Amino acid sequence: MSEPCRFVIFGAAGHLARTKLLPSLYDLECAGRLADGLSFTALARREMDTDGWRAHLTEVLAERRGEHPNEAAARRLAGRFDYLCGDHQDPDLYRRLRRSIEATGACRNVVFYLAVPPNQFRYIVSGLADAGLNEAGDAHRIVVEKPFGHDVASARALNAQLRAHYRERQIYRIDHYLGKETVQNLFVFRFANSVIEPLWNRHLIDHVQIILDEQEGIDTRAGYYDQTGALRDMVQSHLLQVLSLVAMEPPAALDADQLQAEKVKVLRSIRPLDDAVDASAVRGRYAGYLQEPGVAPDSSTETYVAMKLWVDNWRWHGVPFYLRTGKRLAERQSRVAIRFRDPPQQLFRQMSGGRREPNWLILSLQPEETIHFELQARQPGLRMSPRLLRVSTAYRTPQEQALDAYATLLLGVIEGDRSLFIHFDEVQLAWQVLDPLLRRWEGNGDGLVEYQPGTWGPEQSARLFERPHQHWRNDR
Ligand code: BG6
């Protein structure tokens, strides 16, 4: 990075900053990835001065730094910050911000990270624009978090607020799953191996499962979650992004425009749910959810969704994509499981007791990070019979450190690389895919199934499967 860069964090005293942004900046500092000319403004409502902020930052990092704290890196990071206190609706805040940016000589390279609720966006972007902090080109970039809206209409309205002052190229919409290395690996694994890509289509694949299960409940997040539910919280963003990476065509090049265009094509090819809303999805709620602090007693919010989607294009026509996510399930596990078709000729069926033993490819994204292939090979011995051969490899060696997804994303924003961020077309199409379900489920508990914490969720999800041999792949 040749030019100095100023990175402004709105909502710096909030939960996201404390749990993700500041610890990830610290990790990047430790790894020597923050350039000398990079400095930060922390911005929040809380009254304090820069020294007070630096003390706060040191405390936040102390909570997170683990067993081998790097004091020098923590000091270096704190020294990059100044602090501004103010209200997002106060024009004076933006004048002070401008002066603080000018003082660093970084006016031509500024990131504004909006770690604040979406209802604050319009005050912030218009405050920035009025202070002349919306220079076109890539000089000024805005970073926003999910959820981007709560349906198609609200996403469009939110986007219009941002686009009134910034161009699409200046807006970095985060889906933190795209910052996960194992999610990025879906792309490398597919397109860097000539033996994989020819298998990746409806001729050889029976179905695809994308599973993002969680063991935790909603913790203290009822205020957000009870208004949101699993469909909006997880499916609209993370699951559909993973699906796009699994299903996309190879882009002509690795730049953001091409990548986003290919993901958009997948989302556009998803068959509308219109006539099949109930047949395509099962929703559930864990027992005890209504007793969580802050949950409305008459809530009909789902904490579990399983659904089936079809991607109607040449590559995927006829291949069901089964998606599943939920809170308080048996295990925390995220994986893409691909079941291949049975061989056309069942030569060994009798010898394997009539069982089908298909090939599976399982890409475990977290917490386990493995690539796992199941093949058939001859069973040693006198009789000619097949047995299952499990070929597994870890994504990283024990020496290879894992960085949080946010570290990758923050670096992407600082370097102006949009390839790990989401275009508005993707957001909009994802909402469109789910819109019939959102409307069907809104404000009623029809078909909401209660499941016991620690299980795999409602058994009713089995009704989504197209063929008798299909079942959730819960183990690896
Ligand atoms: C967030 C959701 O986007 O992703 C949370 O709001 C969810 O509800 C989280 O727990 C899961 O992310 P990860 O990285 O822990 O899999």
Summary keywords:
nine-stranded mixed β-sheet; six-stranded parallel β-sheet; 15 strands; binds 6-O-phosphono-beta-D-glucopyranose
Q: Order of strands in the sheet with the most strands?
A: 14-13-12-11-7-10-9-8-15
Beta-strand content bin: 15-25%
Counting helices, strands and paired strands, the structural category is alpha/beta
Please, how many helices?
A: 13
Mind describing the biggest β-sheet? Answer: 9 strands, mixed
The overall pLDDT, averaged over residues, is: 94
Bound molecules: 6-O-phosphono-beta-D-glucopyranose
Unreliable stretches: none
Task: Give the tally of β-strands.
Answer: 15
The SSE string, one letter per element, is: EHEHHEHEHEHEHEHHHHEEEEEEEHHE
The level of helicity is 25-40%
The quaternary structure here is single chain
Report on the architecture of this protein.
It is a single chain. This protein is an alpha/beta fold. The chain has helices spanning 15-30, 50-64, 71-79, 91-104, 121-130, 152-163, 181-191, 222-225, 229-247, 256-269, 277-280, 405-415, 424-441, and strands spanning 5-10, 38-44, 81-85, 110-114, 140-144, 171-173, 205-213, 281-286, 304-310, 320-326, 333-340, 360-366, 370-378, 386-394, 448-451. The chain is 33% helix and 20% strand. The strands form two sheets. A nine-stranded mixed β-sheet has the order 14-13-12-11-7-10-9-8-15. The protein has a six-stranded parallel β-sheet with strand order 3-2-1-4-5-6. Strand 5 (140-144), helix 6 and strand 6 form a beta-alpha-beta unit. The chain is globular and about 80 Å long. The model has no long low-confidence stretch (mean pLDDT 94). Bound molecules: 6-O-phosphono-beta-D-glucopyranose. 6-O-phosphono-beta-D-glucopyranose (BG6) is lined by residues 214, 233.
